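Practice problem 4.
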């Protein structure tokens, strides 16, 4: 009987619970003993491992967040922290670990697999910045939350003939901002991949005003060089250059909380089962992600040594729709 543990790490994402449930139940279905690690890598260092039976993951499929808790753990980044984590895994007789998380978390998975501990990652982050996985757990739900906010802000913007800066999450990647902008019909998107100066944003707002639009919506990624706060500061000093009056809304963690939609529940369930199947085949040191529209494995080495590229032709598309 195999003893397998699962943890969630880094920023939580709607659908993480669906992945945990799937991992635990498909593992048990194979006759394995399943365990959960509380609070990500921190829990490995603090020896917080608990057995998980099929009924322990009841009622979580539809819930956002993660029943195991998540954390950002600096100590785990050190060789001493990683050695401690492996000591804990060995102490509990764990033979393989599944890590549900994003870029940083999968770098941690890679470090453990380099130390010869069998690890399989599951691609999960609302940022969609994991190389090798077309889409990751949480993106679809977060995108729909951001989109609903844009739709709502658009109606009040039109009523008052205002411009809005709407900041969405995305530490290093503009995927969420770009897709929110396209789906929400924004006048402009500002993303980390393309440096956009405040005067360019002001010019688009003014052009919208001159064209007689009822509003101007600018979707800004939090990781852009000029985020909503910086753009607002510039616009405050250059009010006459805008035409419209301007407001800013920062969506923040609202996008990460809440229940996962159908797409994320199904994808997370399939990725969780695929992670168990990968371990059964003897695979380790891989990320289980979405490849060609279905679950697939990508070597963690490849994942951590490459940066996922945003399709910049979609930025051009968004400009044509002005
Ligand atoms: P995410 O996985 O959502 O991108 P973070 O980047 O915050 O979130 O990473 C989550 C955790 O993964 C960190 O707190 C740390 O414990 C671990 N981690 C991140 N980078 C590394 C690294 N270079 N080496 C080892 N562990 C790392
Ligand atoms: O990685 C996901 C993410 O939501 C990023 O978009 C954001 O920059 C970051 O996490 C926020 O982290 P925290 O929850 O620690 O504020």
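Answer key:
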């Amino acid at each position: 009987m195999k003893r397998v543990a699962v943890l969630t790490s880094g920023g939580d994402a709607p659908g993480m619970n669906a992945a945990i449930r799937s991992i635990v139940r498909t593992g048990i279905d194979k006759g394995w003993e399943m365990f959960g690690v509380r609070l990500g890598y921190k829990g490995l260092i603090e020896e917080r491992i608990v057995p998980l039976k099929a009924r322990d993951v009841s009622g979580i499929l539809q819930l956002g967040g993660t029943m195991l808790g998540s954390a950002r753990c600096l100590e785990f980044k050190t060789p001493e922290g990683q050695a401690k984590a492996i000591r804990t895994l060995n102490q509990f007789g764990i033979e393989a670990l599944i890590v549900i998380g994003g870029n940083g978390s999968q770098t941690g998975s890679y470090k453990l697999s380099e130390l010869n501990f069998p690890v399989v990652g599951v691609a999960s982050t609302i940022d969609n910045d994991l190389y090798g996985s077309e889409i990751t757990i949480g993106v679809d739900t977060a995108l729909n939350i951001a989109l609903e906010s844009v739709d709502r802000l658009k109606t009040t913007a039109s009523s008052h003939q205002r411009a809005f800066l709407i900041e969405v999450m995305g530490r290093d990647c503009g995927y969420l901002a770009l897709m929110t902008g396209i789906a929400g019909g924004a006048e402009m998107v500002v993303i980390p991949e393309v440096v956009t100066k405040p005067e360019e944003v002001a010019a688009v707002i003014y052009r919208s005003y001159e064209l007689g639009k009822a509003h101007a919506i600018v979707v800004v990624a939090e990781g852009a060089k000029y985020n909503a706060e910086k753009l607002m500061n510039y616009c405050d000093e250059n009010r006459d250059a805008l035409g419209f009056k301007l407001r800013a809304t920062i969506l923040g963690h609202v996008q990460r909380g809440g229940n996962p939609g159908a797409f994320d529940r199904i994808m997370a369930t399939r990725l969780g089962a695929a992670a168990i199947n990968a371990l059964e085949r003897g695979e380790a040191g891989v990320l289980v992600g979405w490849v060609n529209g279905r679950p697939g494995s990508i070597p963690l080495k490849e994942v951590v040594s490459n940066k996922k590229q945003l399709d910049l032709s979609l930025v051009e598309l968004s400009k044509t729709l002005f």
